[in-house]
Specification:
The complex is a heterodimer of chains A (182) and B (184).
Chain A (H helix, E strand, L loop, with lengths): L4 H26 L3 H4 L2 E12 L17 H7 L4 E13 L4 E5 L3 E10 L7 E15 L2 E18 L4 E9 L2 E10 L1
Antiparallel strand pairs in A: 1-2, 1-8, 3-4, 4-5, 5-6, 7-8
Chain B lengths: L10 H5 L5 H13 L1 H19 L8 H22 L2 H6 L7 H22 L17 E7 L5 E9 L2 E9 L15
Antiparallel strand pairs in B: 2-3
Helix pairs in contact in B: 2-3
The chains are: A alpha+beta (182), B alpha+beta (184).
Chain lengths: 182, 184
């Protein structure tokens, strides 16, 4: 008795599909996956003090933030922007980075993951606190206590910038330009 | 497997237990001494197991087969004409009479479809557009403060494109243009 052609045909189909599947799995395991190629996120925060000095007739725009100046001027009603500092750090996904800012502010950033699709947004938890020192009996230096002003979860475009601001600082308000790049 | 192995043609029927007693014994005797045929038999049985576990394939309509045969026949005719070997035309068998060829072609189509799905499908290994990703450079998922005297809010500006998370402090007037309290 001869072979069954229909069964032979099905077997050929199964073999081809299996071979294709194995080839796909092998190739995908050899090629680096997008979500594991980026393991470290670079975080930077430029700190600016913004104030309205129009009553005193003054107007300040520090040279360090000239690149940001047009955006700041069109977004906010202040006429004076003083650059207070720039901090940078790197951290792995899932870990937190703590950035000490001027005015006893502390920015804690924890990148959680980078999206595989679209803009490749970086999802991160951002906490802005203020270090408030309280006097402790018998201690000259006091004990730091942090007041959490803001806690937010954002999905920031890879290499993008978000502005955080509002809390008072040295006669003006704090504005942070927070950037992340994975 | 060696092409000269005449038992090869019986292996499928043997695997399906469709051979006569005499042929079955003949195949078994051959399998005892031919490792390649034994290996091929293992492969056939493995395929059978996979097929038995696989979900049923969607039915192919007669219309689809007819169309497929017509296209393939046209393509074969074109190749034959290009080769300028009229004698081979007489040898060509009707495509629909060879289920193996049809199966190979169908398997090729399925393989390409599978490759395409795995490559660019929703879980694709090749990156694609994220669909409705939106144009905002920053999406604020959640927002809170744990201190009295602060009220956080998020704003999005289109020109320039920028997301602003502003913490309104009781002691300071907000100064976002056109938005927050105290805006100018």
């Amino acid at each position: 008795m001869c072979a069954n052609p229909a069964k032979d045909a099905m077997r050929i189909i199964a073999k081809v599909l299996l071979t294709s599947l194995i080839a796909i799995l092998v190739s995908s395991s050899l090629s680096p996956a997008k979500d594991v190629t980026v393991e470290v996120t670079s975080i930077s925060a430029a700190t600016v003090s913004a104030a309205d000095l129009s009553r005193s007739g003054g107007s300040v725009m520090d040279s360090e933030i000239e690149a940001l100046a047009p955006k700041l001027k069109s977004l906010f009603a202040y006429n004076s922007y003083s650059f207070l500092g720039l901090v940078r750090s790197e951290t792995e996904f899932g870990d937190s980075v703590r950035l000490e800012l001027p005015g006893h502010f502390v920015l804690e950033v924890r990148p959680e993951r980078i999206e595989k699709e679209g803009m490749g947004r970086i999802e991160m938890l951002v906490t802005l606190s203020k270090d408030i020192r309280t006097e402790v009996a018998g201690s000259a230096r006091g004990r730091p206590r942090e007041e959490i002003i803001l806690r937010t979860k954002i999905r920031l475009e890879n290499g993008g910038t978000v502005l955080l601001g509002g809390p008072p600082i040295s006669g003006g308000v704090l504005i942070l330009a927070l950037s992340a790049r994975g | 497997m060696k092409r000269t192995c005449r038992i090869e043609r019986y292996l499928t029927a043997y695997a399906d237990n469709e051979l006569s007693e005499r042929l079955r014994r003949k195949v078994e005797k051959h399998l005892a001494s031919c490792g390649e045929c034994a290996s091929e038999l293992d492969s056939i049985r493995a395929s059978d197991r996979i097929l038995s576990e696989a979900p049923p394939a969607p039915p192919v309509t007669d219309e689809q087969w007819t169309r497929f045969d017509r296209i393939l026949s046209q393509e074969l005719d074109r190749v034959e004409r290009k080769a300028s070997r009229p004698a081979r035309l007489r040898e060509a068998r009707p495509v629909h009479a060879d289920p193996r060829r049809r199966a190979l072609a169908a398997a090729g189509v399925c393989a390409v479809a599978l490759l395409a799905f795995v490559a660019i499908g929703p879980f694709g290994i090749i990156g694609g557009s994220a669909g409705s990703g939106g144009g905002d450079s920053c999406i604020v998922e959640s927002l809170e403060t744990l201190s009295a005297g602060y009220t956080p809010m998020a704003f999005t500006s289109n020109d320039p494109e920028m997301t602003i998370i502003w913490v309104f402090a009781d002691e300071v007037d907000g100064s976002i243009r056109g938005n927050g309290p105290g805006a100018m």
